[in-house]
Every structure is written in structure tokens, then in C-alpha cells.
Amino acid sequence: MSLVLDPAAQDLLFREARTANTFTDEPVTDEQVQAIYDLVKYGPTAFNQSPLRITLVRSPEARERLVKHLAEGNQAKTAAAPLVAILSADNEFHEELPALFPHFPQAKDVFFGERPAREGSATLNAALQAAYFIVGVRAAGLAAGPMTGLDFEGVRKEFLDDDHTPLMVVNIGKPGPDAWFPRSPRLSYEDVVTTV
Questions:
Q1: How far is Cα 56 from Cα 62, in angstroms, rounded to an integer?
Q2: Which residue blocks in 41-175 are alpha helix, DSSP H?
Q3: Distance CA 108, CA 113 (A)
Q4: Single pTM value for the model
Q5: If DSSP codes are grouped into helix, strand and coil, which group holds residue 173?
Q6: Which tens digit of pLDDT belongs to each residue from 151-195?
Q7: Taking the C-alpha atoms of 123, 192, 171 and 182 in order, what is their torsion angle to the nearest 10 degrees?
């Protein structure tokens, strides 16, 4: 059985997708980021909780503040990327549930009244949305460089608050020269799928 999605789109979103390590200096506009978000916001999350929050790092001063919290190997490429996004989980997402999950607004208190339950759910579902976001960047014809080599607590203190948990930093832009490392191997279907 073949996939319904056009093969060129399959390539764009998945087969040719790699972490970009260099970028051109072509700007990434707010309109492009909004188009990405307006597409990926439809990806499903539990209870439609939508806990992902995106902090765009544009100013040179903010970039400098961010770079000092990154692993050494991530600093230069982040300093040079046209746009950098800090993706985080909002641990107070439940406040939006009456609007986002209107057929059961009590979910806010029934399932997420306690902070530990919210934090676990926020992290899982925001990570899911982060993956949608990366695919959305590809759908916009841009390259993404997601990174988790960073001081998470430092990034949280510098850019967020106690109600937000940083998940990753994503460099965004048009790929530059030698942007890609060679494709790494992938596990086969047989290695991953078990039928019971």
C-alpha cells in the first residue's frame, strides 16, 4: 500500500529532512513563523491541551544571552542562524482548557489540578508539538536545527519563568553551505514494530 501524500512532499517533510548546521543570512519573517504555527497548531495533543510555547530570539542582545547557555558545539551555528526559537512547555496550560476542551471544561481540575500531573503531561505533549513544529518548518521550505545541548535551567532563568520548562532550541533558516552531516542510519521496520 502506498502513502497518499505526494512523494515530493514525503521527501520534503521526512526523507530529506536533516538537522541543519549552517544557514544563509536570508531573514525568517514573523509571517513565515505565523504560517508555520497556523499549520502545526492542528496536530493533536491530549485533551487538546496545546502546551507548547515559542520564544523567538531575534535581537543581538537576546542571542548573546542565549548562546552562553548552549553547548560549545552549538554556539557558533546559533549565533549565525537567521532565527532561533526556544520551545518550552507551559505547565499552567490547564488554564486554557475550558476554551480548548469546551465539551469537558472540568478537565482543568479533574485531571490537571495538581502541578506534577500538569508537568508530566505538558512535557510530553509540548514535545509532540515541537516535532510538529520542526516538520512545519520543513513545510515552509526552511531548515531546522533542533538542539538539546544546552543548560536548561540557565535558559529557563534567562528567558522563561517557573511555569515554563524549556525543551529545545531550534535554529531556523534557509540551509547554508555544507549544512548537512551525512545521513545517519535508521532502524528497520522489523527492529521497531512488534505485533502481539
A1: 10
A2: 60-67, 72-80, 97-100, 107-110, 115-139, 152-159
A3: 6
A4: 0.95
A5: strand
A6: 999 999 999 999 999 999 999 999 999 999 998 999 999 999 999
A7: 160
